[in-house]
Design goal:
By secondary structure, the protein is mostly helical. The protein is 78% helix and 0% strand. The longest helix is centred in the first third of the chain and has 32 residues, at 129-160. It is found in: Cell membrane.
Length: 442
């Protein structure tokens, strides 16, 4: 399980620097405007809206002697690795909006080719309700450990030379590429792929109609919208934290350290929330985690510039609440795919996980595409030595209230979710009976 979960490391190790450090570094050190960066992020996420479901459908339909998921993961790893070289080791003479856009295009394509088949595979390792939470917990802990690892080096650099953005990028890039080389073989050898379920209807639906299923399944819609909202909250905080700590708090030496501190506690958050999910169910645990994050983000309005104590306490709390909604919602996707297969006879697990990936990427794009221009509209300038009080207060309000509102919406969307443990157990029993009846006798 640990070997399989290790593939979460390089993907997670790239995602957080892209959301947290890359916008600030490319703005401050390479001179790209916040508006241009926000537009590039939005465009690349919209590209993901096309690529993700295509990869999901094609992965479900892939048939090879290596399995349905492995060929996609290997191809994605190659693209992801090359794009990481371009993004994390840029030459100042080459950086331009076109350069950044092309590199982001490639890294999101490679990431999707790894992540969507990988998540679908993880949802098919076990069909048991709580065992799926355990599998996702391993992946969540691996991802949190990756984030911790990738933030250690920038934190050290901040203490020595907080303005050396290219050195920070190179340090994080080394972690991403090094972990990719190590973890891909470990994950591919961890488990055998279960054979594809025998379809009840052997006719293959057209690609376009298959993708529209993403928006017609009511259970999947609720999970996707809830994940979309929680990702907006997380990404708004991630995209602005460097600016908030540096400009509003006046503590540039803490810019990476606070995020590092958060993920120290984030490593243990996964098992804690898994235990909560075992006791009260997945959707109730997701609601509890989201409401906790609402309170934490509202409390940010009470922090005082230059004083670290309250911000440090809230960072610890954020770490302990970290990923609660993501963990439960990701575990719920495989359950929803089971319900869909029972109703329609078609196994669309990868397609459903592509939708989950799509909601996450869309949430990140919306957060960056709105939050950065919004703080700019308030007058905040990341390259200015000082900003006006009005600009700094605008930064505070967006940083605190944006995530709080998004997490509240996420909790409301998943409230009363009907697919609980007993219902899922019945779905699995009926699926196993039908699969046994459809399997030809030896």
């Amino acid at each position: 399980m640990a070997g399989f979960a290790s593939l979460s490391v390089p993907v997670a190790a790239a995602q957080m620097p892209l959301a947290v450090h890359l916008p600030a570094i490319y703005a401050q050190h390479f001179g790209l405007s916040l508006g241009v960066i926000g537009a590039i992020f939005l465009a690349e996420r919209l590209w993901g809206a096309i690529a993700d479901p295509l990869i999901g459908v094609l992965s479900d339909r892939t048939s090879s002697r290596f399995g349905r998921r492995r060929p996609w993961i290997v191809g994605g790893a190659i693209i992801f690795g090359l794009a990481s070289l371009a993004l994390f080791f840029p030459s100042a003479s080459l950086v331009s909006p076109l350069y950044l856009g092309a590199a982001m295009f490639a890294i999101y394509l490679g990431s999707a080719m790894i992540q969507i088949p990988y998540l679908a595979w993880s949802g098919q390792i076990s069909g048991e309700y709580h065992e799926r939470t355990r599998i996702v917990t391993f992946q969540t802990v691996a991802a949190a450990a990756a984030l911790l690892l990738v933030l250690i080096l920038p934190t050290i650099i901040d203490q020595l030379n907080p303005r050396d953005g290219q050195l920070k990028l190179a340090a994080m890039g080394a972690v991403v590429i090094g972990s990719l080389i190590i973890t891909v073989p470990l994950a591919l050898r961890a488990f055998t792929e279960a054979p594809a379920a025998t379809p009840v209807n052997h006719e293959r639906a057209p690609l376009g109609r298959t993708i529209t299923i993403l928006f017609s399944d009511p259970l999947l819609r609720r999970v996707l919208l809830s994940d979309f909202a929680v990702t907006i909250g997380q990404s708004t905080r991630a995209g602005l934290i460097v600016f908030f700590v540096t400009a509003y708090m006046g503590l540039p030496q803490w810019a990476s350290g606070l995020y590092l501190f958060q993920f120290v506690f984030g490593v243990v958050a996964g098992p804690i929330w898994a235990q909560i999910g075992y006791r009260i169910g997945k959707h109730r645990a997701a609601i509890a985690g989201e409401l906790t994050q609402v309170a934490i983000n509202l409390a940010l309005l009470l922090v005082v510039p230059g004083q670290i104590a309250l911000l440090l306490a809230l960072t610890v709390a954020q770490g302990l609440a970290q990923g609660s909604g993501n963990l439960m919602l990701r575990s719920m996707v495989a359950d929803v795919a089971d319900a869909h297969r029972l109703r329609t006879g078609a196994d669309r697990t990868a397609l459903f996980f592509s939708a989950f990936s799509l909601s996450s990427k869309a949430g990140m794009a919306v957060a960056v595409g709105i939050a950065l221009p919004l703080v700019g509209w308030f007058g905040f300038n990341p390259q200015a030595v000082t900003n006006t009080p009005e600009a700094l207060h605008g930064l505070l309000w967006v940083f605190a209230l944006g995530p709080a509102i998004a997490h509240l919406i996420s909790a409301a969307l998943i409230h009363g979710f009907p697919l609980h443990e007993a219902q899922h157990s019945e779905i699995r029993r009926r699926l196993e009976e039908r699969d046994a009846a459809l399997t030809p006798a030896e």
